[in-house]
Amino acid sequence: MGYSFHFRDVFAAQDALLSGLALTLQLTATTIVAGFVIGLAVAAAAVYGPRWARAAAHAYVEMIRNTPLLVQLFVVFFGLPSIGIKLDVIPVATIGLAINLGAYASEIIRAGIESIPKSQVEAAVALGLTGRQVFRHIILVPALKNVYPSLTSQFILLMLATSVASQIAAPELFYAGSIIQSRTYRDFEVYTIIAVAYLALALLLRVVFALCYRLLVRRR
Amino acid sequence: MIRELSWVDPLYLILALRWTVAITLLALAGGTSLGLVVAACGSSGNTAARLAARGYVGLVQGIPLLAWLFLFFFGFPIFGIDVPGWLAATVAFSVYSAGFLGEIWRGALISIPKTQWEASASMGLSYLEQLRHVIIPQAVRIATPPTVGFIVQLIKNTSLASVIGFVELTREGQMTAAATLAPLPVYLMVGALYFALCYPLTTYSRFLERRLHGAG
Q1: Quick one: which of A151, A142, A144, A131 has its CA closest to A48?
Q2: Domain holding A85: CATH number?
């Protein structure tokens, strides 16, 4: 094959890799929080809302789940300026990713809410719990516990999907890789290191989510 | 060369849709073949085969698809194999699909109760007959809704082939946006076309799911 691998040139650019990694972590964290809040609101609208809210929630979820993230990011990237909102690329990427995650999260949370048997709610009401108490203790918390595995898998997929933000020039890990590639021409080496970094991050997140589950369930 | 957005542009976008469909079908062909192997290994009694399948799935599902695309795009030339962009994309999408399809099908296979195997064995069916007449018909019913759901994911993800220069719907959209300086209407049209392709499949998958649970 006659090709010699040179990883040294790539590691020489570790500052760029590390700052890319930092932004990937930041994008992941902010998007998970924002996407979860959107998902919760949309799921609540889809289950308890009036007719128009249910229709709006349904339209949002179907629109996002049936179009590619890349195209969604382009629409946000080019769409926000055209309605007079000029933002830095990182907030733009966060908004695009959060809108995307919100649709998937809302479907998962909605499934969780619908998995709670009606008799549980009736029993709670009969015991004199207020509406807010019923929603919080009988519906929301058990529902989230039921869907915790699906929800956290979705978060890990989201972390991997932040790489797509490189296509609107958000300087996250994958983008850092393409910059180093254009400087060193070590394309295969660069993307091998990038791939290993994402894999490590995915495994790390899985462990963190498993630990969180244990902590949260123990405490209750 | 800058030009106005005109009535022919939507037509070109619609025509580009066939390349999105073509790369999806190629990836499905590759992903199905490899995915069957992954599912067979993952549900087999052999520990080494099971571990290999689990490792493969973990690897595929832990690395972004964009990275797989670039690894194959830049990897083939290193080993002296010159491949066009569409072929590198097909290989990358096949490897990726096999990781997800293999896991879906493994789950369907192992969800068939052991008693089904035992009952069919006691009726004198050979291993292959058991699979053919008892296990696979049941597993297929379980696996079809998530498989259709994954095909929707795959169609959407073929948009990433645009970054290695394969001209499918998204790439066609990028070129149109660059030539007309009207990115927003172009990308909205591109999104609408993906929606037109994916929404019927999503609806069908949900219908199958409901029927499965209704009958089950």
Answers
A1: A131
A2: 1.10.3720.10
CB atoms inside a 10 Å sphere around CB A119: 8
Contact B69, A160 (CB under 8 A): no
Interface of A with B in 55-114 (CB under 8 A): 62-63, 65-72, 74-75, 78-79, 82
Which tens digits make up the pLDDT trace of A173-188? 999 999 998 888 888 9
Determine whether domain B8-215 maps to CATH 1.10.3720.10.
yes
What is the number of alpha carbons within 13 Å of residue A50 lying toward its C-beta?
1
Q: Using a cut of 0.80, tell me whether the model's pTM lies above it.
A: yes
For residue A103, pLDDT over 90 is answered with yes
| ipTM (interface pTM) | 0.92
How much of chain A is helix, strand and coil, in % rounded to 5?
85, 0, 15
| pLDDT computed for residue A1 by the predictor | 53
Chain B residues with CB under 8 Å of A163 CB are 64, 66-67
**Res. A217 pLDDT band, cuts 50 70 90:** confident
Query: Is A55:A37 a contact under the CB 8 Å cutoff?
Result: no
Tokens of B8: 């022919």
E-strand stretches of chain B: none
The residue extents of the domains of chain B are 8-215
How many whole angstroms separate alpha carbon A140 and alpha carbon A135?
6
Sort out which chain B residues have CB atoms less than 8 A from A3's CB and list them. Answer: 78-79
Tokens 């933000």 appear where? A165
